[in-house]
Design brief:
One of its GO terms (biological process) is nucleobase-containing compound metabolic process. The protein is α/β, with parallel strands linked by helices. It is built from 21 helices and 8 strands. It has helices spanning 32-44, 89-92, 94-100, 110-118, 130-136, 144-152, 172-183, 185-199, 202-214, 237-257, 261-264, 267-276, 281-285, 293-297, 299-311, 331-334, 336-356, 360-363, 366-375, 382-396, 400-414; strands at residues 16-18, 28-29, 46-54, 67-73, 76-80, 105-107, 127-129, 154-156. α10 packs antiparallel against α12 and α20 crosses α21 (400-414).
Amino acid sequence: MTESDHTGSPSEPEATPLLAPREGVPPLLTSAAEIARAAERLAAGEGPFAIDAERASGFRYSNRAYLVQIRRAGAGTVLIDPVNHGGDPVATLAPVAEVLATDEWVLHAADQDLPCLAELGMRPPKLYDTELAGRLAGHDKVNLAAEVQRLLGLQLTKGHGAADWSKRPLPPEWLNYAALDVEVLLELREAIAKVLAEQGKTEWAAQEFEYLRTLEPQPTRRDRWRRTSGIHKVRDRRALAAVRELWLVRDQIAQRRDIAPGRILPDSAIIEAALADPDTVEKLTALPVFGGPRQRRLARVWLDALARARTTDDPPEIHEPSNGPPPASRWQRRKPEAAARLEAARAELSELSQQISVPAENILTPEIVRRLCWDWQPRPTLDTTAAAVEEFLRRAGARPWQRELTVPRLARALSAEHAPADSADA
């Protein structure tokens, strides 16, 4: 869980501080025998499982879990070390995974933790996401601290969510923080479920949770190096090639050492080197960052990458090839009829968002709306328009509750009366 999840707000009402787990901080379980006994203990409990995982984002290359926290009524909380037990993580944690497969999981921001838990062989048979539930309930702040304070009257203090959870031994105060992540998660689930029931949104939430539970991992972006911070400063194909080569070498080193790439070489240094294009050790080490002892040891590695960029036969294009619509800011010039459709669709969804108190991006993702409006071919009647919108949204993965609410509105936005007068000639 991230640091921000435990950060409250001065505008929130006073609440009772929640400083330590009610049963004390449980021990960190590190051996196969301890983990097997924890599985037996969890099996003896009843009801859903409150689950969280801690990673080492910003410190490690991998997104693996370095701590797993589980709480169940009648069983209390267990803290499991999934990496330092001397065996295969999936095999060692198999008894726990088997128990977890028997009932609902309750997580906060489940999309962050489900992938690393799946790596451990743990997959939920049913899911409840208290953060997503808060969004559907129309809450303006949905981090864990805000929701706990709003619905349970308890205050979670700042902690160690952004810490290096790969560190061993884990300090006692970190384990206290981790145990508190699941301490009241089951109570929070019941409280937010009541809110959704009062708003008539229980079925909406159920559809969202099941979609999230069964969502397949998305393919990795092809040109990940284009995410390098500051790349907008690079407007030359050869310099872009340098960014690409430096990024790829850094990524290989980071993966091999299991260190976050930015700790090998910051993005700012990659951009600096790509723009300066040094061809000697002296020129390279004169640049910011590269003059340090660690970078001096890797100087030849970086220079070789820059040399490959100068001689490559396929320097990258300035703009990444896209299989989707261009940025909406360019639509008015390139395709004004699509810009008009998008404006009308956004207006309809904004009005709907206000009516049902659900953020527009949770009603339909902006990407789906852009694709619909960019590629749209006008239909002769409102009914045929609605049928086509329904089919498009279904194929895009929109849930039944979303289609029921949005199809009539989007059909109205996309109907001929909203198109520019000259659209028939376009």
